[in-house]
Specification:
The chain is α/β, with parallel strands linked by helices. It has 11 helices and 8 strands. It is about 40% helix and about 20% strand. Strands 1, 2, 3, 4, 5, 6, 7 and 8 form an 8-stranded mixed sheet that branches. Helix 6 packs across helix 8 and helix 7 (about 160-170) crosses helix 11 (about 245-255).
């Protein structure tokens, strides 16, 4: 079993290497997927003018820009991501009242009791030690501060990711599935685990609200098959496969996704938690 330090190091290596590059290469497709889930999360966070906000797992700064507008002109946003690649892209936006930092939420030396809001759109599922990370984030919050984030539910509730993976896997090299306590896309899918982590970190009783929206994988099957090979679990497996394996895998994915193809593209259900908690 890997230690929290080893898990954190793996995440840093991935997001500062192939993960960051694949994210930028698939930026438009990813934003199309995550923005509809981020909007209700931002509404629930209700950042106010003059507030100080911490944006965790900020990526290329999409949510940072929206939070910065909400707290302007006097408020400030500190946006943190483990990926130097993505933070560099975020800094290029030149957001007037936002500062970006490369760091691990579990160890970043945030100023204590200085933030009104900690926010994250799909940035908390990759913590090597989630309890330590949330303890550090709670320490950064003012006594009246609040936490709001959105995360994926279980793979079974997210056919947009599960259906292609199940279809392709028999044709690709074997891969190591993450354990129930390991970081990963669906590591916060279990409600009880999320509640336990936040409780152990010292937060008050959290609210977990289901957030279900369709996810459009592509405008047609060709675009869908191209996009799944550029970012995500299948892209990582394709990188280790030979062309014949990839061809078979894509054919299997196309067959599995055929029932979800319409004139508006290929779309499948997506399922998230919208989580909120107070400092105490």
């Amino acid at each position: 079993m890997k230690s929290a330090t080893e898990l954190a190091a793996e995440q840093a290596a991935f997001w500062n290497g192939p993960g960051g590059k694949m994210w930028l290469a698939s930026y438009e497709r990813i934003e199309r997927t995550v923005t509809p889930f981020g909007e209700p999360a931002l509404a629930a966070a209700a950042a106010q003018p003059g507030e100080r906000v911490l944006d965790i797992g900020c990526g290329t700064g999409g949510t940072t820009a929206m939070l910065a507008r909400a707290v302007a002109p006097q408020g400030q946003v500190l946006a943190v991501d483990i990926s130097e690649t993505l933070v560099t892209a975020a800094r290029a936006q030149n957001i007037a009242n936002a500062t970006f930092a490369v760091g691990d939420a579990a160890t970043q030396p945030f100023e204590a009791a200085s933030f009104d809001l900690v926010f994250s759109r799909f940035g908390v599922m990759f913590f090597g030690d989630p309890v330590a990370a949330f303890k550090n984030l709670r320490r950064a919050l003012k006594p009246t501060g609040r936490l709001v984030f959105v995360c994926w539910r279980t793979p079974q509730e997210n056919p947009w990711g599960l259906v292609p993976m199940r279809a392709a896997a028999p044709h690709l090299p074997p891969f190591e599935r993450p354990g129930p306590e390991d970081p990963g896309q669906y590591s916060f899918g279990d409600r009880a685990r999320v509640e336990r982590i936040l409780k152990e970190a010292g937060f008050g009783a959290p609210s977990l609200r289901p957030l279900d929206l369709p996810i459009r994988l592509g405008k047609d099957m060709a675009e869908t098959l191209d996009s799944i090979g550029r970012f995500g679990p299948l892209a990582r497996l394709f990188a280790e496969a030979v062309p014949a394996q990839i061809e078979k895998a894509k054919a299997a994915v196309a067959a599995a996704l055929k029932p979800y193809e319409t004139g508006d593209g290929v779309a499948l259900p997506g399922a998230c938690w919208l989580v909120s908690a107070n400092q105490h």
